[in-house]
Amino acid sequence: MSFVLRLVRRMATLPGLRRLTRVDALMRVSLSLRSSLVQQPWRFVWNELRPDKRVTATYHLKESGVAITIRHKSPDILILDEMFSQHEYRFPDTVLSRLAERKAGPLQVADIGANIGLFGAWVLGLFPDAEIVAFEPDPANVAMHRRTIENNGRAATWRLLEVGAMTQAGPIRFATGSFATSHVARGDEGGIKVDGVDVFPLVADSDLVKIDIEGAEWPILQDPRFGDLGADAVVLEYHPEGSPEPDPARAAGALLSKARFDVIAHHPKDNGTGVLWAVRSSS
Fold first, then answer.
1. What is the per-residue pLDDT across 64-119, written as a single tens digit (0 to 9) for each?
2. Most distant pair of Cα atoms in the chain: their distance
3. Beta-bridge partners for 176
């Protein structure tokens, strides 16, 4: 099944076939192939292809057994694919080595822009005793995330804060309903009022900090306190929105370097975003 999934993904990038991805029925079949990632593949296929309304379901990942909760017929399936099939957040060996050298005790992880909890599930597959603090302001995403925490029995060690991660506390306007791309409202864009928190005191002792907040990362990266974090490693998804210069990858790399982090891996995407992995500079 994984071979078929890779073949379909490759074919979908070909100019003559790309327009077929706009056909809903064909798209549903393609997405149903992600069933190879879970221990309940036939239930996954049925829930993705069934003709009635969208359903929410819980599965166990095939490789780790960690429970996840997703909304079928939604972008959740694409994020599942990115995380567990394309391995967009695969830990570089340098990061694994650096985390192995840290002080004893459970790995402390901050998940800023936590969506439905798939990064947390990825972390638990690698570090089963990890302790996670997650930040997610979209109520619909929060509901899925809480179910994932509960289904893994991790309420004591996986804390989810329904807030926006900012550089100072205060209410913010948040554009919800876009699944993984919900974001702080821009300009006159509509949104709901959510609580924003000063994220720095809450992640000061984290060993690993992950940031993916759809353009709201730039004030955090530019804050002088970013360089004072105790983190051994940072994984950042940068976005063009809000970038201080035309090249967001260059801007993100420069800000990480200024904060005394060395970029050791870069995975750019076609849409101008990308993922950077960085470790605390030893010099």
1. 999 999 999 999 999 999 999 999 999 999 999 999 988 789 999 999 999 999 99
2. 58
3. none
- Do 109 and 231 share a domain, yes or no? yes
219-231 burial, b at 16+ Cβ within 10 Å, e below that, comes to ebbebeebeebeb
Total count of domains within the chain: 2
Residues 74 and 98 in one domain: no
pTM over 0.85: yes
Instruction: Extract the tokens encoding 188.
Output: 């006159």
Q: What confidence tens digit (pLDDT) does each residue in 129-188 have?
A: 999 999 999 999 999 999 999 999 999 999 999 999 999 999 999 988 889 888 888 888
Give the helix ranges, DSSP H, for 217-263. 217-222, 248-258
- Examine the domain organization and report whether 45 and 179 are in the same domain: no
Residues with Cβ within 8 Å of 57's Cβ and at least 6 positions away in sequence, in order, are: 43, 44, 47, 69, 70, 72
Distance from C-alpha of 262 to C-alpha of 11, rounded to nearest angstrom: 36
Measured between alpha carbons, how far is 181 from 148 in angstroms, rounded to an integer? 19
For residue 72, the enclosing domain spans 2-84
144 and 214: one domain? yes
